[in-house]
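Hallway conversation turned thread

IA: we were arguing at lunch whether anyone had actually written out SDR family oxidoreductase end to end. Turns out nobody had. So, for the record, here is the sequence (236 residues) and right after it the structure tokens. Reply here if something looks off.
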Amino acid sequence: MSKKTKVALITGGSSGIGLGIAESLLKEGYCVAITSRSQERVDKVVGQLKQIGAGEIIGIEADTRSLEQQQNAVQQCISKWGQLDVFVANAGVGHFAPVEELSLEQWHETIDTNLTGPFYSIKASVEALKASQGYFITISSLAGTNFFAGGSAYNASKFGLTGFTQAIMLDLRNAGVRVTTIMPGSVATAFNDHQVSDADKWKIQKEDIGELVVDILKLNSRTLPSKIEVRPSKTS
């Protein structure tokens, strides 16, 4: 691998925003690893992604809720490519219901995936990112600053993720690791079993977030966009 080639690991990269980021980084020549809880799912997507871009792509079965599995994903990247330059903590779930109807299982899955998952992500990757003077990006949400009825679990996870990311940005900046959180509004994806249709054209598209990540990574390292809110230009 060329010394100039960069390596990125994206959790939840088999669909939605994660897939859009993977596509954009591959087109930029990155070596990309994407994770999913299903090896069958990630293998299918890898087969499709091999048709685009100049970079290499691999798929890894890993649950963001498991520190051991995330450590394994990082180690696979290092074993294959010798380094890790970018970690995108993207995997997320959403359960929406009034608090009296929200189950314990839904609460724990939301918090464990959306908040504990990124904590495990940085714990698994921080030494590799220090070595490469790399970048850690979390995908939060405008729901991380704007609360709404039925969003107790999701709001809690995204408010927490926004604060967590800003705190570790301060922890790691002088070690040469840049940290950014991206907070999208409405994105046209199948998140929460949504069926994407022409009615979603007004929304942010997954490739838009991919392009944003590329732009962030191209920015001079002396400048750090630590928190970025992104919303559709117009409402529906």
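OS: looked through it. The first strand starts at residue 7 and ends at 10.
IA: good, adding that to the notes. The domain at 7-230 is CATH 3.40.50.720 (Rossmann fold).
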